[in-house]
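quick one before i forget lol
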Amino acid sequence: MASSAENSPSPGPESSNEPTPQLNIPPDILRLRAEIFALESPITVSVTEFNNAWKYLDNIYVRNQARYGQKKTTTYYWCRLWRTKAYEPSVSDEQRKRKRTVREPIGCPCRIRIVSDGYYMTITRGKEPHNHDISALDYKLTTAARELAAQAVAKGSRPSLVARELKNSGIGGQITSKDAWNAGNVWVSRKEGRPAWQKHYPKNVGFFLIG
């Protein structure tokens, strides 16, 4: 049986008349990503600022543990590339429905600590920095990239154009047209009408004249 990915429609050729997808990306988010990646000195931001920015940062760090005090909460995060051993899947490649790319372990030692008093959050790095560039994390799409792709596709933009604009913005990482399509598929399926390129027509349909 063919998988849903195989049955999903492939966007047709791009038209030069199609408008560029409008992506609502904060103007300083790339600077903030670079600062929180390097963390050469502590950074203090409001809780609101952190919550709004985190979806653009969640491909850099993963939460490890938290300690809750009466006045402050301390949360520890590890670099997403912290593993020192390659991941060993429980399902063999022959049984897997889709192929996965196995990344070589980097064993990044970078750890950060976030202390919050409920109003502000101070972000501090441990002794060791990352042992890789920020581009090594592009394989993992941020929550923001998926949300932006979903919203743009739902409004009628072609996935290939959305993926291109997200890459050009520096937020999209290694996003593909299929990633953009999948992100927006739920939104698109709920719309009453679809753009012309999203209309699906059955193949090999015969026409009969009834006389």
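fyi Residues 1-6, 192-211 have pLDDT under 50 and may be disordered.
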